Write the structure tokens for this entry.
Amino acid sequence: MILIVDLCREAESLSKYEFVDPIANSVRRAGSEYEVVHFTELTEDLIERSDRIILCGTALKDDLYARRIDLFSWIKDLEKPLLGICAGMQVMAAVFGGEIVPQPKIGLEKIEIVKETPLLGQPREIEGYHLHNFGVTLPPGFDLVGGGADRIEGFKHARRPIYGIIFHPEVRNRWIVERFVNL
Amino acid sequence: MLGVLFSGGKDSVFACKRAMENDSVVCLITIVSENEDSYMFHTPNVQRADLIAEAMGLPLLTWPTEGEEEVELLDLRDAIAAAKKRYGIEGVVTGAIESVYQAARVQRICRDLDLWCYNPLWQIDQVEYLRLLVSEGFEVIITGVFAYPLDESWVGARIDDCLIRKLEALQKMYKINPSGEGGELETFVLDGPIFRKRIEILKARKTYENYRGRLFIEEARLVDK
């Protein structure tokens, strides 16, 4: 089961249609079962029962998740595959000792994949949809996978299958979610 | 408190329904473009958006634009700023499904005006969405066709299960976007679960030539449900 974590400011919000449902649909199309849970309602049992976990993005103006990083400390010891998208990546950076930094960007932009990984494949250029006010610094123990040190597009834990991407794969890059489901 | 960018087409009406289920919609915002080929704004029958607003019991803020590319964004910004001032909106709702061009521009305007931006149909499966519209009781007609092989019979047709199956087949054969997201179709909503009254068309004029057709609603009225 894929656990899809909703990071929007409240459960069943209007933003869920935009930031959670498209990810859930991509997972469904990839043929996997999934459960959706709001980040304030996560339980040890749910995390335990899941095979993989996705942390979704949020609306541009939403920053509640960044003020509740304490609710994500379980990520620190996770051995299962984890994908953080936009806000999800920011949470991961904060948990692992990186920083969430102002870095607003809206729209389609070229993304340089700089290191080969099972998730994003070989180094090359792709185009991705950005919708964020904040970016991240690289946490200790992580490799830069996309973008540059001053504008990180993607990172991966050096040993574990833990990935973060700042762009939204539900727009023109659903293959990333499908590949994550089959990692 | 939210304002909905509103054309009278199915996407803005359905986005409005989802917004009303989650929050309070206090106004509809309609941009009336003089440019029939606007990249940003739905044009056929947008002048009739006032009738839908009245049917839904919501105030409508209309704002004119000449429809020049990019300049029309300044008009949109002014319209949204006016809605913020007049109705106290805290966020804007759009019916964007796939268009990164539209969505990114509205997101930037909302950021600049310190407003929330919601796109509750974003990346929705278009065929599933059409079925949802019908199953939830929306009565939607096609008021514009702009792509091969859509013939004259499509102009004025009602979206029902049979028509959705035809659109699904056209998607496979011609890569038509079933909900018209690529500009293939324009629609107008006559009734739905958020309508207090339904709209009855009394007089309409059809034009069609070379896979471009329109239904102009010339007279319509509200009818009790």
Q: What stands out?
A: Residues 2-181 of chain A form a domain with the Rossmann fold fold (CATH 3.40.50.880). Chain A has a mean pLDDT of 97. Residues 29 and 178 of chain A are 8 Å apart (CA to CA).
